[in-house]
Amino acid sequence: MRALDHARADRDRRAADRSRGVTALLWWPRWLVRRPRWWYLTVLIAIPSGFVVDGFLNAGTQWILAVLAWWTLLGALSVLTPAERGQTLLLVALATAAELTFSLVLDWYAYRLDNVPPWIPPAHGIVFVTALLWSKDPLALRHPTAVRVTATVLAVTYGTLALLLADDVGGALGVGLLLVWLWAVGAERGRFYAMMWLVVCYLEACGVLIGTWAWAPTVPLIGVSEANPPSGIVGVYGFFDLIALALVSRYFTGRPEKLANA
After folding, report:
1. What is the DSSP letter of 262?
2. 3-state SS class at 18
3. Residue 215: helix, strand or coil by DSSP?
4. Nearest C-alpha neighbor of 126 from the set 179, 58, 75, 55
5. How many CB atoms lie within 10 A of CB 252?
6. Is the separation of the CB atoms in 127 and 46 below 8 Å?
7. 145/154 Cα distance (integer angstroms)
């Protein structure tokens, strides 16, 4: 009996050591998520830096960036609630399927190596986490209407200029969708989409200017013209977010023990 107790204690000790090891490995992104302003700054710098580095990589070495991106995302997820983790991972799965379809099947846009870089799926998750953190930011919580109004004015201005100067009809349609996400799905999601619009516009401009990807001159299936990048592409992102939110909310509904941890 004593030997069995020693064995159990030893097993529990090893499990605790492994847990501490994983926590230490994920320490840096966990630290950032707990300090959102530092997370925002890191993402601001990492987006163009990652695109520049990708320009020197081939299809095999792109996995280096993928490992770094997954490390960052998993560290961030370890701090979020179960519901937020579930929604983020589902969003990553949906976005990956969309990437494969839109890029490789429909040729809506093309990456530099005519593939979907392996760092793209976790990068979607990082963008999602950034918008999620902003939806809970004290500044956004104090001024929810101002945040949505500002995003609306900027998005409409950008979309109008792109339509007039670059015949960005597809982008204008996307801006219309964005306005729905900003104003028709509640204040919390509105704050979320305000930051999502800002981050996506920034990363699209960086990605196109650095040469990481390029958009087709027309939108597949509907054939309308668009700019490179389209001004309202974040409107399309909203579909994946709403699907992920609906499915995860359904999973947690009626499960008090899960909602208690959410």
Report:
1. -
2. helix
3. strand
4. 75
5. 17
6. no
7. 14
Q: Of 218, 106, 114, whose CA–CA distance to 173 is shortest?
A: 218
CA–CA distance, 95 with 102 (Å, rounded to integer):
10
For residues 215 and 226, the answer to whether their CB atoms sit within 8 Å is yes
Binned at pLDDT 50, 70 and 90, residue 261 comes out as: very low
Q: What is the pLDDT of residues 114-135, one digit of tens each?
A: 999 999 999 999 999 999 999 8
Query: Which of 206, 200, 187, 199 minimizes the C-alpha distance to 236?
Result: 200
Tokens linked to 64: 């280096």
In tens, the pLDDT along 196-225 reads 999 999 999 999 999 999 999 999 999 999
Query: Do residues 139 and 40 lie in contact, with contact meaning Cβ atoms separated by under 8 Å?
Result: no
How far apart are alpha carbons 217 and 167 in whole angstroms? 10
Structure tokens at 179: 């306005």
User: Are 199 and 127 spatial neighbours (Cβ–Cβ below 8 Å)?
Assistant: yes
Domain residues of the chain, as ranges?
A: 2-259
Cβ atoms of residues 90 and 247 within 8 Å:
yes
d(CA 25, CA 30): 10
- Say which amino acid occupies 195: M
For the chain, the straight-line distance linking the first and the last C-alpha, in angstroms and rounded, comes to 40
Q: Which two tokens stand for residue 70?
A: 């997954």
Question: DSSP alpha helices (H): ranges in the chain?
Answer: 2-25, 27-33, 36-54, 62-77, 82-99, 120-135, 138-142, 144-166, 169-183, 187-210, 234-252, 256-259
> Would you call the peptide bond into 144 cis, given omega within 30 degrees of 0 as the criterion?
no
